[in-house]
Specification:
Layout: H1 3-14, E1 19-23, E2 27-28, H2 68-71, H3 77-82, E3 85-88, E4 95-100, H4 103-112, E5 117-120, E6 125-130, E7 136-140, E8 143-146, E9 152-153, E10 163-164, H5 167-172, H6 203-219, H7 224-239, H8 247-259, H9 264-278
Parallel strand pairs: 6-10
Antiparallel strand pairs: 1-2, 1-3, 3-9, 4-6, 4-8, 5-6, 7-8
Helix pairs in contact: 6-7, 6-8, 7-9
């Protein structure tokens, strides 16, 4: 870790901005053993940032805190030593970030949204508005909204005057980019088809497929909700009819999605929607 990362985090915390360390790849540190695979019920996700009671950074955005004593405590030290970046919880700071993932998205924003403070990213820009709202990924091509129950990478204070959150941004979160049916949490897999015989070569084939699906979700840098849905669809299209999927496999996929900011309900809805699409 560069000492400058912790220093930047502490400066933000003093100003009331909840922060957390990110490991290489701009991902939050993994959940503690008590919370892995949603074993804790993900209760911190239903609360404010900093509500996670785990001793070290856990639950992504919900582990963000503005408490400097926590940030400098011994349990957090290993995370800061391995950290590659600092993130913050925009909603916890009363902010909304419109994440524009490339030059085309930036052009769209300049033509469509009111001007505000901007921060350059590796591929596009963050437009930061004063005011919080619900987060939503893939509100349009290469555009995400990060506010409540989300985190954004800290890339500096930016330039320009921050303005109030406009209705034009709030309206972006009204329409789902992927049609999702309201459904109860489904954690079982349909009964095997064709006598229950698995046509896959070896159990390693399934394990490799799950690992590749986890990687696809983990490496997604935008359109997270759409990526999760399409990944679930791909897994179920190959493994959903033979009966070899287990709750443990689902837990791995859900955990990968939740590490990217997806809530348990969104994961369950995406899974149910994928099953419906395939007629399972």
């Amino acid at each position: 870790m560069s000492a400058s990362l912790l220093s930047a985090a502490l400066e933000l915390a003093v100003r009331g901005v909840p922060v957390l360390p990110l490991r290489a790849g701009k991902l939050p540190f993994g959940n503690c053993p008590a919370c892995t695979g949603s074993a804790c019920g993900d209760r911190p996700h239903m609360k404010r940032a900093g509500a996670c009671a785990c001793p070290a950074p856990c639950h992504g955005w919900a582990g963000a805190t503005a408490d400097t004593a926590v940030l400098t405590s011994r349990p957090w030290a290993p995370a800061w030593r391995e950290a590659g970046a600092v993130a913050y919880h925009p909603g916890g700071a009363g902010l909304t970030v419109v994440d524009l993932d490339n030059a085309a998205a930036v052009v769209w924003a300049r033509e469509t949204l009111p001007a505000t403070r901007t921060v350059s990213t590796t591929r596009g820009e963050h437009w930061i508005y004063r005011g919080a709202m619900r987060s939503r990924n893939a509100v349009r091509q290469d555009v995400d909204i990060k506010s409540c129950m989300s985190y954004a990478r800290w890339l500096g204070p930016g330039t320009g005057t921050m303005t109030d959150l406009p209705d034009a941004v709030r309206a972006l979160a009204v329409t789902e980019p992927v049609a999702v049916r309201s459904a109860p949490v489904v954690i079982t897999v349909p009964a095997p088809v064709g006598g229950g015989e698995c046509r896959h070569r070896t159990p390693a084939y399934l394990d490799r497929g799950i690992a590749m699906a986890e990687q696809r979700i983990t490496e997604a840098s935008s359109a997270i909700h759409t990526t999760v849905y399409r990944t679930f669809l791909a897994v179920l299209s190959v493994h959903g009819r033979c009966g070899c999927l287990t709750e443990a496999h689902m837990a791995r996929l859900f955990a990968a999605a939740q590490a990217k900011g997806e809530g348990p309900r969104h994961c369950a809805d995406a899974w149910a929607n994928a099953r419906t699409r395939l007629g399972l």
